[in-house]
Amino acid sequence: MKLLIADDSAMMRERIKNQVKNFDDVTIVGEAGNGKIAMEMIRDFTPDLLILDLHMPEMGGMEVLKKVREARMKMKVCILTNYAYPQYKTRCLKLGADYFLNKSDDFEKTNILIANLLKEE
Q1: Where does 29-120 have alpha helices with state H?
Q2: Alpha-carbon span 15 to 19, nearest angstrom
Q3: How would residue 120 be classed by pLDDT, with cut points 50, 70 and 90?
Q4: What is the pLDDT of residue 18?
Q5: What domain range includes position 49?
Q6: Each residue's pLDDT tens digit, 46-85
Q7: Pick from 5, 9, 3: which is nearest to 47 by CA?
Q8: What is the CATH number of the domain that holds 30?
Q9: What is the count of structural domains for the chain?
Q10: What gap in Å lies between CA 121 and CA 113, rounded to an integer?
């Protein structure tokens, strides 16, 4: 599985990479610190899973999500955010997010999510 991480926090990208390193079948194809770079990497690497923060410079996560879905890209999208308000969750799911996780409460669930996606392959 090819994974792309898009989060403006280098520390959060590191935490995600540490979570993922236990999975032999997951390759991190890129890291983006803003939405514009995330879109470039999505086009270049066509990841199977995009872990996406909502609030990033240059282009926010919702805009990235909208563009990904408008382009009918088949990747799974997991929103991982500190802004896990119900209105954001509702909007992201309507835009086509597959998962919506709170960085504070749900971070460990990324392991479960990835394990389940690997089983589906």
Answers
A1: 35-45, 61-70, 86-95, 103-106, 109-120
A2: 6
A3: confident
A4: 94
A5: 2-120
A6: 999 999 999 999 999 999 999 999 999 999 999 999 999 9
A7: 3
A8: 3.40.50.2300
A9: 1
A10: 13
